[in-house]
Amino acid sequence: VKHDGRREAYDERKLRSGLERALQKRPVGSDTVDTIVEHVVKKLRTSGERELPARRIGEWVMAELKAVDQVAYVRFASVYRSFQDIAEFRNEIERLEAEPARD
Fold first, then answer.
1. What's the rounded mean pLDDT across residues 80-89?
2. What global pTM score does this model have?
3. Residue 33's closest CA among 42, 21, 45?
């Protein structure tokens, strides 16, 4: 279910395309894209719901990207959340920097 209430069938190609754009020219292999898609599909299937808000799916994708590549995460988030100016980029980067480091 889109933000404006429209309903749209889940499209794995659309998800994969968005991930590939976010990860373009990043040191992340195509196997990682496959893994992220698999994780999202698994969450969709185990949710037990026939319809999900698109926002929830986007949040799952952003969580996956954040764990893999923070630059790709910010790229994806900037499109997904429709950043309007540099301040929104800065705020997101500051949130990332404030999080505990991952090993």
1. 86
2. 0.81
3. 21
